[in-house]
From TrEMBL:
GO terms for biological process: lysine biosynthetic process via diaminopimelate. Its EC number is 5.1.1.7. This is Diaminopimelate epimerase. Belongs to the diaminopimelate epimerase family. The keyword Cytoplasm applies. It catalyses: (2S,6S)-2,6-diaminopimelate = meso-2,6-diaminopimelate. Keywords: Amino-acid biosynthesis, Cytoplasm, Isomerase, Lysine biosynthesis. InterPro entries: DAP_epimerase_AS, DAP_epimerase_DapF. Catalyzes the stereoinversion of LL-2,6-diaminopimelate (L,L-DAP) to meso-diaminopimelate (meso-DAP), a precursor of L-lysine and an essential component of the bacterial peptidoglycan. Substrate binds at residues 11, 72, 82-83, 154, 188, 211-212, 221-222. The gene is dapF. It comes from Micromonospora craterilacus. It is found in: Cytoplasm. Pathway: Amino-acid biosynthesis; L-lysine biosynthesis via DAP pathway; DL-2,6-diaminopimelate from LL-2,6-diaminopimelate: step 1/1. SUPFAM superfamilies: Diaminopimelate epimerase-like.
Amino acid sequence: MEFTKGHGTGNDFVILPDPDGALELAPGLVAAICDRRRGIGGDGVLRVVRAAKHPDGAAMAGEAEWFMDYWNSDGSFAEMCGNGARVFVRYLLETGLATPAGGTLPVATRTGVVHARVDGEAIAVEVRRPRSYGASAAALGGLTLPGTAVDVGNPHLVCPLPAGLELTALDLTRAPGFDPAFFPAGVNVEFTAPGEPVDGVDAHVLMRVYERGSAETLSCGTGACAVAAVALHEAARDTGTVAVDVLGGRLTVTVTPDSCWLSGPAFLVATGTLTLP
Ligand SMILES: N[C@@H](CCC[C@H](N)C(=O)O)C(=O)O
């Protein structure tokens, strides 16, 4: 079958067009496709299926034609993928499968319909307003790093590093420990440090992430939204715009009273034929 490879700030995805929902995707197949040596390689798979043809999308078919069926690289599901949604929209536009109406394009996801705006190289998606729901901690390299749990449709734990500990010093080749009683479905863990002041934004944060189901990635869009919400809270603000620098570039997050816009570049880089095992 045909595939396209795309990325948003280095968070990379294998895109599988399956308009009628005919493809039998399974965890083992997704993991094989995402294998960086034996497969195509990616942090996840985005299956492009008509909302009406997917059991998780059918209820949204009146609002959005396309459903983003997102899978992590280990074959697990996630409720939402911010960068994935941005790359998904780039794919819909470049293949002519959809055109924005009134400047925005709706996409059905497991967290509901999200709306996207296109601005040249950048695609912005409006995701759920991040909601902090308590304090927990990550364990890494013998350290316990306190953090804030944040729900962006999927779960995050945002851990600002203590002074003197550099982001570059973290070994994220292994998963950070977390409290499974607090995060029974697992969690994406973001480590942050303050960035230098940037014009035009309310805060600037540097971030690395270890993603549930995908290990360390160069970027996580929903993670950036969680990080932005925590940074704004630390600045005694409820809303505002935050520049979040990830290993793969810069994401800009604007938290509004009732939602959150995630913006950054999104590219398609290759197409090809996948020989299914
Ligand atoms: N990279 C994504 C998040 C993907 C899902 C995540 N690994 C999870 O399991 O929740 C993003 O850009 O938001």
